[in-house]
Write a structure and sequence with these properties.
The complex is a heterodimer of chains A (133) and B (71). Chain A is an all-alpha fold. Helices cover 73% and strands 0% of the residues of chain A. Helix content of chain B is 66%, strand content 0%. The chains are: A mainly alpha (133), B mainly alpha (71). The A-B interface holds A 112, 115, 117-118, 120-121, 123-125, 127-128 and B 1, 3-8, 10-11, 14-16, 18-19, 22, 26.
């Protein structure tokens, strides 16, 4: 009986620890503010929320959620998000057919079209080094 | 190369330190038709002023080798 109680207690403790570790971190207040504005369609807030998710800053780190908000922001023609998403697509190793690279450059060019300095710099550097046409 | 310079100049004029550093690198290249040492120094100084550590190091090296004077 004692042995049963010991194992049952140990099991519950282990399950509890796993539950605590796996449960998503509650959003910090700055993250919550971003989330509210992002839901309302604010492109900068959507971009900032993506950054929060990528870094796990004030929320649980999530590449998937970060990419989701970055895409939403870039679809609003937000230059910062287009540049960052483009850069991420260019660096994606799982791009077997080169489609992500094409999409990545397309986004960076769109962003550069809005005179966004980091995108202009990326294109300039790529042209210099012969990475882009 | 000219396309690269055009894009980098647009970014550099917005105080993008990375673009300024690359322009410094390009203007010092032997194979660049518009090679211009004054432009190199100008852009390295700009980049250094915007916090580019590698540009600060390049200026220090050029200064140590006597190619420029740092006041």
């Amino acid at each position: 009986m004692k042995r049963f109680i010991f194992f049952a207690t140990a099991f519950l403790v282990i399950v509890g620890v796993i539950f605590v570790l796996m449960s998503p971190k509650k959003l910090s207040s700055s993250c919550q503010d971003c989330f509210k504005l992002a839901k309302l369609g604010d492109a900068e807030a959507q971009y900032q929320l993506a950054c929060h998710y990528f870094q796990g800053n004030g929320c649980s780190k999530s590449e998937r959620k970060g990419m989701k908000w970055l895409k939403i922001s870039s679809e609003q023609n937000y230059a910062k998000a287009q540049c960052r998403l483009g850069d991420r697509l260019l660096g994606d190793d799982r791009d077997l057919f080169g489609k992500k690279k094409i999409k990545g450059w397309d986004l960076i060019e769109k962003s550069a079209g809005q005179n966004y300095a980091p995108s202009l710099c990326l294109i300039g550097y790529a042209s210099w080094k012969g990475y882009a046409g | 190369m000219q396309k690269a310079v055009t894009f980098l100049l647009k970014a550099a004029k917005q105080d993008d330190s990375e673009a300024q550093k690359y322009l410094g690198d390009i203007y010092i290249q032997d194979d660049f038709v518009n090679k211009n040492f004054d432009q190199t120094i100008y852009w390295y100084r700009k980049a250094a002023g915007n916090g580019s550590v590698s540009s600060i190091n390049v200026i220090r090296e050029l200064s140590n080798s006597g190619k420029i004077q740092v006041s």
